[in-house]
Every structure is written in structure tokens, then in C-alpha cells.
Design brief:
Elements lengths: L2 H6 L2 H22 L4 H8 L3 H10 L7 H20 L3 H9 L9 H4 L3 H16 L3
Helix pairs in contact: 2-5, 5-8
Length: 131
Amino acid sequence: MSAETAQTISPEERAIRESQVVCRAIFVLQEDLNLKVKDLEIILGVDRKTLGRWKEKGAIPNLSGHLRQATSHLISIYRSLLAMFSSPIDRRQWIHTGHMELILPPVELIRDLEGLIRVRRYLDYVRGRGA
């Protein structure tokens, strides 16, 4: 998107586009990482029906507060895994396996904001040291 185009988009349109992109990313990473609906319910703090509506509409209304933070960290974790592993199998294995430094499997840690931040920081550290 060019700078000129970005200037012509209203704040409302920008928010709609952001909610669509985030929604798409959430369901792509869910499939890629083999996350259960229950995992997303817990991570994002929403119920199954809400997830179904988002998927059907292709957008997340009211992307703010806890939901904005949780989706941001979850997407960042996924982007780190994409950078580290070319294979979906390796990404799935990483998220579902315990690690010495994290103790629990990351999928169990990311069930709250503190865990999302912990896993994101760990991945940033690992990627920064070239491991």
C-alpha cells in the first residue's frame, strides 16, 4: 500500500481491514499449528460461538484491550516459528512439546497473556542468538 493510499483510508476502514487481517491470521495459525478450538477459546478469552462468527464473517469486531494484546503476541509467536521452521510439522512439534527452558509445552503456557509474553520473549531470545 502506498503512502498516498494509506492517507485516503479512513480510520474506520483501517480498523475493518486490520480486523480482517488479524482474523485471517488467527485461523491460518490455528490450522498450521494444529491448535484446537478450545486452545483458541482459552488464549483469546472468547467462546466457540464467537470464534465461529469471526470465521464466518472473516473479521474480528472490537479488536481492542486484552484481545488486541493476545492476538498480537500470538501472531508474533507464529511469525517467529515461520522464520525458524520451514515445515508445518516442525512448527507443530515445537508448540506442542516441552522445552527445557520453558518446562511446559508452549501451547500450555500461552493460555494467558503472561504466558504469551513469556513464549514470545523466549522465541525472540532464541532467534536473536541464532539458535
